[in-house]
Design goal:
It is a single chain. The protein is mainly alpha-helical and 266 residues long. The protein has one domain (10-265). Helices cover 79% and strands 0% of the residues. It contains eleven helices and no strands. The protein starts with 9 loop residues before the first helix and ends with a helix.
Length: 266
């Protein structure tokens, strides 16, 4: 049953804690786990789950951006290039959905569920083949493209992320990092992650505000998720060094493959 008005519920905080721990452990999984969890487990309307998760991501990733900025691990030029593509794409996507679904995102349930499902499958693939993709990108770096071509491709990447994230809340993390690994194979991974997180803040904030104006954000739900996720991220980050990535990443990919397939089939 779809829940239109979600009360403050301890279950949501537990879900936020679990997802927060996974994000802290793996660096990905915020939107790709939280949104389908809200839809499939709690029966939240897909549009409301996406809209609420976008603002949730903006708040949590703002903290991550601050930490990376303090450490000097954000390439602001890359962040600006991504935003140059994602900001207009986000605005246009929101306007198109509003135009073709006059009642707002609530009338675009099937579209959102399908896009979310495919976004999860893409995210899972990027996790499974991350090492091979990095090796391929490194080999390609021996024949470097021009700076202008790289900048153009970065803007296009931002544009695609803007569309995907606006409709599904998924893609700003794992997909963004994977794309940047292709485009900037010589850049330290920590800077790629920092730049991607910094770009995710304005992207998810603008998309979240758009969903808010269209009535697809639940602030009580948002508060309950944050209550659980903030300590979860803190604990997960400290445990990350103790659990092998070769166990965590395939496990997360398997969850995303199952969840994405279920959303597409529904």
């Amino acid at each position: 049953m779809v829940a239109d008005a979600v009360p403050m519920d301890f279950g949501y905080s537990i879900a936020g804690f679990i997802v927060g721990m996974i994000v802290g452990l793996t660096g990905v999984g915020g939107g790709s786990l939280m949104t389908p969890l809200l839809v499939l487990m709690f029966g939240i309307h897909p549009a409301k789950a996406v809209g609420t998760d976008l603002l949730y991501a903006a708040i949590t990733k703002a903290g991550g951006t601050w930490v990376h900025a303090q450490k000097g691990t954000v390439d602001w030029r890359i962040t600006r290039l991504l935003a140059a593509g994602s900001m207009p794409a986000t605005a246009v996507t929101l306007l198109l959905v509003h135009h073709f679904a006059p009642g707002g995102f609530g009338n675009a349930t099937k579209l959102i569920s399908t896009v979310l499902g495919f976004a999860l499958l893409l995210t899972a693939a990027s996790l499974i083949f991350r090492n091979k993709l990095m090796a391929w990108a490194e080999a390609r770096s021996k024949t470097p493209r021009s700076q202008r071509a790289t900048e153009t491709l970065t803007v296009i990447t931002g544009l695609l992320l803007g569309v995907l994230v606006s409709l599904s809340s998924v893609g700003a993390g794992a997909l963004g990092v994977t794309a940047l690994l292709f485009l900037y194979p010589k850049l330290p991974t920590v800077k790629i992650v920092g730049s991607d997180i910094a770009h995710a803040v304005p992207l998810t904030l603008v998309a979240g505000i758009g969903h808010w104006f269209m009535g697809s954000v639940d602030f009580e739900l948002l508060g309950a998720l944050l209550v659980g996720s903030l300590p979860g991220i803190y604990i997960g980050s400290h445990l990350a060094v103790r659990i092998p990535e070769k166990i965590l990443r395939p496990s997360l990919a398997a969850i995303l493959l199952f969840t994405g397939s279920k959303l597409i089939a529904n």
